[in-house]
Amino acid sequence: MNLATVKSLLKETITEWQKDKVPILAAALAYYMVFSLAPLLMIVIAVAGSIVGEAVAQKEVIEQLETLMGEQGASVIANAIQSQFQPSSSIITTIIGVVTLLFAATTIFAQLKESLNIIWHVEVRPGQGIWEFIRSRILSVIMVLIVGLLLLMSLGISSFLAGMSDWLDKVVSIPSLLRSLIDNGVSFILITILFGQIYRILPDVKIAWSDVAVGSGITAILFIIGRTLISFYLGRATVASAYGAASSFVVLLLGSS
């Protein structure tokens, strides 16, 4: 790929980015994420917790949230998760709670599906009605399960690397920079897989893995950079004093964006 090709690709990307009104789509996703994040993570914790234990899964999720949106944003989500994990004595209440939980958790993926359809210029066939709604929610549930499986992979890899690190420390000292590179490398692989599956599964069009592999990798790199910058900003910005009672909501919006 020569310089002229790169320049042409960047120009086309910016043009399509403006044409599809991506900032508006991103704002909508951030808004829906605020309301879907706690239910989504509850299901992810339940899926991962069934294998590694609820406490271990919840601890890993909270640690990841702290790196993404700072302590304040993670604290808001942690409190919401903790309050929802209280057992209910009524079967009917439990059923209603589970249905509501699934609906709320899958809303973000349903909105993401609509956004990807716009970006891919997919025209959904009219007249599908309730079937399209059900299909959209089923795909969203699949994505929730994929997130849970990736969390399990992350826990397994982290445990393995921690064990290897402890063993190697007895033999040779490992620089902190190398550990950071390994952690970011693992995050890059898992995030690339996640974005790749999102790009392939959610839109109403068949897409080959080869068509999204490069884009998923670039998105993963941008996500890691953005996560670092947002975490740096939230760790030093005085959001609470600037927005008062709405500070928690603003922090969640910033972290979700």
From TrEMBL:
Among InterPro entries, the record links this protein to:
Virul_fac_BrkB (IPR017039)
Sequence intervals crossing the membrane: 29-52, 91-110, 138-161, 181-202, 214-234, 240-256
Keywords in alphabetical order: Cell membrane, Membrane, Transmembrane, Transmembrane helix
Topology in membrane: Multi-pass membrane protein
A single GO cellular-component term on record: plasma membrane
A Pfam short name: Virul_fac_BrkB
Q: Where in the cell is it found?
A: Cell membrane
Q: What is this protein called?
A: Ribonuclease BN
Q: Which organism is it from?
A: Limnospira maxima CS-328
From the broadest rank down, the organism's phylogenetic lineage runs:
Bacteria, Bacillati, Cyanobacteriota, Cyanophyceae, Oscillatoriophycideae
